[in-house]
Design brief:
Protein name: MarR family transcriptional regulator
CATH architecture: Orthogonal Bundle
Number of helices: 7
Organism: Streptomyces gossypii
CATH class: Mainly Alpha
Largest sheet: 2 strands, antiparallel
Radius of gyration: 19 Å
Number of strands: 4
């Protein structure tokens, strides 16, 4: 657990919806965030080597994962969802198309719109990476007491809900976060 005793929590702070976040929630968030960040780093920087695959930069891997889970997404929607500039996403998409990871296809209803889809190469690569991640986590879980493993497994629905709440917050532009413009 991180020491946050030097942080002035005061009477909470303004929440995205205009209310106040109480000190207990802020304390929980301060405790949870470093652990979740450390886990995300493991997922971003491990798995590809273990799966015997090429190493994609984390931003490219994130983009492929998103398109895999949201087939048919547009570059603009992808940029908004990932909090990136559309021009940067366009460049990354071009590179991933060149690598055979993504394919572009015209929208059947409006041929001016281009939809993104993963290729079979990307699907197979993602399966290998996710299997490697599962192996990495299984090795780590094996070192934990049974009650910790049970607690972590039971927390999956709560973590999924937290992920969705954070995604919705970002999509809504809450907290004064500027969303990139399409371009």
């Amino acid at each position: 657990m991180r020491d946050t005793s030097d942080v002035d929590e005061g009477a909470g702070r303004a929440a995205a919806g205009g209310g106040r976040v109480d000190d207990e929630l802020l304390g929980s968030a301060r405790e949870l965030t470093p652990s979740l960040y450390a886990l995300s780093r493991v997922l971003r920087f491990e798995g590809m080597d273990e799966a015997g695959l090429w190493r994609l930069p984390p931003a490219e891997l994130e983009l492929v994962r998103y398109v895999h889970h949201e087939p048919g997404v547009t570059v603009g929607a992808l940029a908004r969802e990932l909090g990136l500039h559309a021009s940067n996403v366009s460049s990354t998409v071009r590179r991933l198309v060149d690598l055979g990871m993504l394919q572009r296809s015209p929208d059947p209803d409006d041929r001016r719109i281009t939809r993104l889809h993963v290729t079979m190469k990307a699907v197979q690569g993602m399966a290998m990476i996710e299997n490697a991640w599962a192996d990495i986590f299984a090795d780590a879980l094996a070192t934990l007491p049974a009650e910790h493993r049970a607690t972590l497994t039971a927390s999956v629905p709560a973590l999924d809900a937290l992920s969705e709440a954070l995604r919705a917050r970002r999509a809504g532009g809450a907290g004064g976060t500027a969303r990139p413009k399409e371009g």
